Amino acid sequence: MPEYAELNINGKKHKLPVVLGTEGEKAIDISKLRQDTGFITLDVGYGNTGSCTSSITFMDGENGILRYRGIPVEQLAEHATFKETAYLLIHGRLPTWEEHRQFSVLLNDHSLVHEDMRSFYQHYPRGSHPMGILSAMLNALKSFYPELENLEEEINITVTRLLAKIRTLAAMSYKISRGHQVVYPRPDLAYCENFLNMMFDSPVRPYKIHPDVVKALRLFWILHADHEQNCSTSAVRIVGSGRVNLYAAISAGIAALWGPLHGGANQAVVEMLENIQNEGSSIQRVIERAKDKNDPYRLMGFGHRVYKTYDPRAKIMKNICDTLLSKLTTQDPFLEIAKKLEAVALKDDYFIEHNLYPNVDFYSGIVLRAIGIPTNMFPVMFAIGRLPGWIAQWLESMNDPNWKLCRPRQIYTGPKITDYVPFEQRYKKP
Ligand code: SDX
User: Fold this and answer.
1) What is the mean pLDDT of residues 79-108?
2) Contact by Cβ (8 Å): 230, 47
3) Span 72-261+383-398: which CATH code?
């Protein structure tokens, strides 16, 4: 691999350093391009632009590979807890037994939220989307905790509070939105069990924790835990680059995740399947609409900026659907519709030529339906899973000596210099 790439501009040659990643990824370092050549690059949507070097997650979009700190996601799904996965992403290695125990105690100790926060929910307009509420509450958390002098201590306690409290805040928004009594976290329950209990326990109908539901939730969150420089992670890094506190950076990540092209796709997929069922649309008709350039309709849960083959997470998510529904001896007509859509799309030339395959969101909503999560909380479930990844990426950027305020440039295409026209000349008196 050459050390440099050569750029020839008007006969003048410029050498640009080549950067090589652990897995052979190649980049041209253009950090000095403008000062050396007067040019910038233009890459709308950043599909060809690396924002950083990172040692957290490796994705191979052509081969459908995903690893957290080098460990294949399939192995973590098979053997790890979500807490272990969060610890791995944040600290760069799996915890020892003692570290895992301490981490569990800390997460339990910090899982309550200040009672004053309940009034924030009560004055939120009914029917507000849970992602808007969650983003606001994560930002509001900061107001309850004066900054500690010691930066490292401040960061560690903030990381713990965020991981511990996001579940409580999410479950509170669900309970309060339904006018139900808030259920507090219990010190005797593990991470996933505690969330399920806070969501579904009630004085009139105690929630019975089902091991297969817990396993499905654990897998769901592990599969969502990080995904390198996706839209919401980039938002966390960019907002964090201004040196604002971590609560605010995570709040920005939740806002970025909310959109239907990103983390809101799991909700959009189930709404799409519901429409297909309610309208009795044929699978072929749906596929034709998705292919029609003149129709804004898209097959939600299909396609990905990086994966040009089957998203490895979607494979596992599809298996979770089958396993969980059979363990709960229940069926979901949406799963049958999804499988039919997949079968037709994967044989269709348009989808093959455009490398469109199911992504993590195509089957994930069906898992959440089986668990009992309401559809508008599906992106919230994604956010809880992605929180460890956002934290890990933020920490990595804060500790990167090369990291600085993110401030992209642009190519201006507006009017050339022009003069102000006084008001009286613009509005002729009648
Ligand atoms: C997530 O980045 C991440 O890692 C994200 C994520 C994570 O874990 O953080 O993996 C989570 O966000 C997954 C993606 C969830 N979004 C959806 O499922 C929404 C549906 N998918 C599409 O909107 C789309 O595939 C995107 C947004 C996901 C990716 O789109 P790109 O890379 O910007 O590509 P594009 O929109 O320019 O599409 C390229 C072509 C176009 O056709 P042409 O104009 O070139 O002929 O593919 C077509 C598109 O029309 N296309 C689709 C399609 N997705 C792309 N056509 C029909 N249905 C689709 N779903």
Assistant:
1) 97
2) no
3) 1.10.580.10
